[in-house]
Amino acid sequence: MGFFDKLKKINIFAAFGSELDDDFYDELEEALILADAGMDTAIDMVEQLRQRVKQEHIKTVEDARAAMCAILTDLLSVGEGKLNVENPPAVVLFIGVNGVGKTTTIGKIGHQLKGEGKKVLLCAADTFRAAAADQLTIWAERSNLDIIKQHEGADPAAVVFDATSAARARKADVVLVDTAGRLHNKQNLMNELNKISRVLDRELPGSSRETLLVLDATTGQNGLVQAKQFKEAAGITGIVLTKLDGTAKGGIALAIAKELGVPVKYAGVGEGIDDLKPFDPVEFAQALI
User: Which of 30, 135, 64, 96 is nearest to 240 (CA)?
Assistant: First the structure.
């Protein structure tokens, strides 16, 4: 079974007739919009398909399906899809609103990186949410990973500083940093993340760095709004899409790629420790249609 078989099927070609006429394209556009791709993305994708059908003299719906799969794959292949942890101790910051599965995502990625032979250190820099550090500690214990944390309400940048010192001393390959999940005040968020960034610049110059935004795929177009705000406030190098096994239709990945030019680096389709995987644009596009 493919990883994205759990994805709620859109089957955007299933109920269509056999003619590549205006009704076909109108229905396809509507299906993409209903799949959370967003109106602008849907219109653009359908127009690209029209052009390809014309240029390549495509006659059947089945061939149009293959062409659409290629178009979606191209769209989703934006940016560098692989997590950059080349220069140790590499740092991956995780940002996002509460409730999207951020801490769980960190635990799962930490487990995977350890399985690849990397020494992983977790950093509990979300000091505002009660029990955030406790939740991350459970994941650390589950995968036998080191964790750096302080008391609730501590300065997040101070926790990150401790983590950089520990990473050097313990020769860690990767530091995964949990941050506070809130966006009620963009300036506060920006100030906090800038402070963390300055600590990392000073303490770990030359280390690889990623900032991943964790998004709940079931929120649809609201997820795109969040992504735009976080990109503006924090700068992001990639997206983690969670909860693709629920009511999510997955089209939000298309909207993010088109609107933000930011790659989806991981996708989650369940609660299990192995239900989060590096994102594969080809497999995802095929599952989508």
Answer: 96
